[in-house]
């Protein structure tokens, strides 16, 4: 990859690009570019079958897709290595000749990590680090060929950040990362003290909620600045149209949006729908989002509760299609929960989107959600894993149009004031500018404080 523009730039290292469920990343990249930051994108995976958001076409940054390494799961490592090593051999050979000491140091650390972070002393080395080292080598060679790239930034602090850390050690470039949800809380994604090592070496860390910031501050073990910068939303893009007065006999729509994964709590929404049906409440419910392995649980529950005529699963849509869907909904419900393994959402972006569209929202009082929703002020909060409480809140909103309107208007005011991406992205741009200029990054200077 050659770039003849002399302006310093940041390399974004992502697991996959563009990913339908990660509009917050594509929007962030686009807004950073509009603010004047030069970027290059490295995508570890080349995604197929993903819906395409319009903002992707506006991104100018070149995208480099790494050689596609096969999945390690359920395979002999030696067979995997024999099939995949040739994809990386040439770039690693050139890299070794160019920076032998740095290369060998990173390679030795890779081997050390694969042994250190085994589940037990009797287990085979943790080979995922070898895969990530191979991927880091491809990125290292590319950034060394492009002297305008002076900083590496990864989204999610497990795999992509491990790759960035290796690439940083080989290339000598500083790195930073944005942490989100399960990448923080699931220990198997950062076993042992790996997260602390990443935080110690990173120039800075960003996370999207105050709850995450407190968690990272508590476990960092270093002086790294952890910045809370909300993802934000383009409030000029998500603008509600005037809602017409519903006819007295109109059937209201309960809307929810998100990947069909356990932490979204959709099974509790489905159970809440069964409670509402049994109370004689008229409604239909649409759960819009891409299928995941948990989707079958939701589908089976809908069938078991005989809700096929009331609850539908339309599948994933683009951000442009979603705006129209929000306009059609009467109540937005997202019963997020903390999974037994610790996985949870931060502040779901769909809640911010729904609130920007003046929808009255109901969610749970976990993680960063209370940073967005004030109960009875701009939405309703209920306890997690409580279908009856969710049903009560939905029924209350369906029966009180004035409350829906008041909460919806307050919801948009909150988003425009505290979650406007044009403000939050400036804070992130300032961090990158400081790094590119070789300045120290101080948390109290650059942390976005809009709440």
UniProtKB/TrEMBL annotation:
<keyword id="KW-0328">Glycosyltransferase</keyword>
<dbReference type="Pfam" id="PF00534">
    <property type="entry name" value="Glycos_transf_1"/>
</dbReference>
<dbReference type="InterPro" id="IPR050194">
    <property type="entry name" value="Glycosyltransferase_grp1"/>
</dbReference>
<dbReference type="GO" id="GO:0016757">
    <property type="term" value="F:glycosyltransferase activity"/>
</dbReference>
<protein>
    <submittedName>
        <fullName>Glycosyltransferase</fullName>
        <ecNumber>2.4.-.-</ecNumber>
    </submittedName>
</protein>
<keyword id="KW-0808">Transferase</keyword>
<dbReference type="InterPro" id="IPR001296">
    <property type="entry name" value="Glyco_trans_1"/>
</dbReference>
<feature type="domain" description="Glycosyl transferase family 1">
    <location>
        <begin position="247"/>
        <end position="413"/>
    </location>
</feature>
């Amino acid at each position: 990859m050659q770039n003849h523009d002399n302006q310093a730039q940041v390399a974004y290292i992502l697991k996959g690009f563009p990913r339908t469920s990660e509009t917050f990343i594509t929007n962030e990249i686009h807004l950073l570019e509009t603010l004047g930051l030069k970027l290059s994108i490295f995508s570890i995976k080349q995604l197929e079958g993903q819906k395409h958001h319009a903002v992707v076409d506006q991104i100018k940054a070149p995208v480099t897709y790494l050689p596609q390494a096969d999945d390690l799961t359920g395979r002999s490592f030696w067979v995997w290595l024999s099939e995949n090593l040739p994809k990386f051999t040439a770039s690693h050979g050139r890299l070794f000749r160019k920076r032998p000491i740095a290369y060998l140091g990173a390679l030795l650390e890779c081997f050390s990590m694969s042994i250190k972070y085994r589940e037990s002393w009797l287990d085979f080395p943790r080979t995922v680090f070898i895969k990530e080292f191979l991927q880091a080598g491809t990125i290292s060679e590319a950034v060394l060929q492009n002297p305008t790239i002076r900083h590496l930034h990864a989204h999610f602090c497990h795999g992509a950040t491990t790759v960035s850390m290796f690439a940083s050690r080989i290339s000598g470039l500083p790195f930073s990362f944005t942490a989100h949800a399960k990448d923080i809380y699931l220990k198997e994604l950062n076993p042992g003290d790996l997260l602390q090592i990443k935080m110690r070496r990173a120039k800075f860390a960003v996370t999207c909620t105050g709850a995450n910031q407190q968690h990272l501050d508590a476990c960092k073990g270093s002086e790294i600045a952890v910045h809370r910068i909300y993802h934000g939303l383009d409030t000029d893009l998500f603008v509600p149209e005037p809602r017409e007065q519903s006819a007295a006999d109109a059937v209201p729509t309960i809307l929810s949006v998100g990947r069909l994964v356990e932490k979204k709590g959709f099974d509790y929404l489905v159970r809440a729908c069964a409670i509402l049906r049994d109370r004689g409440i008229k409604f239909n419910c649409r759960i819009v989002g891409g299928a995941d392995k948990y989707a079958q649980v939701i589908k089976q529950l809908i069938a078991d509760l005989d809700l096929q005529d009331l609850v539908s699963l339309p599948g994933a849509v683009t951000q442009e299609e979603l705006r129209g869907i929000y306009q059609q909904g009467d109540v937005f419900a997202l019963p997020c929960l903390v999974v037994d393994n610790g996985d949870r959402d931060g502040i779901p972006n769909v809640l911010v989107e729904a609130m920007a569209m003046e929808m009255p929202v109901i969610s749970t009082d976990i993680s960063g959600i209370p940073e967005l929703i004030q109960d009875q002020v701009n939405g309703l909060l209920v306890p997690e894993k409580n279908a009856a409480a969710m049903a009560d809140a939905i029924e209350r909103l369906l029966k009180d149009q004035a409350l829906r309107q008041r909460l919806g208007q307050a919801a948009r005011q909150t988003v425009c004031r505290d979650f406007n991406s044009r403000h939050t992205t400036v804070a992130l741009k300032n961090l990158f500018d400081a790094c590119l200029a070789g300045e120290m990054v101080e948390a109290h200077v650059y942390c976005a404080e809009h709440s």
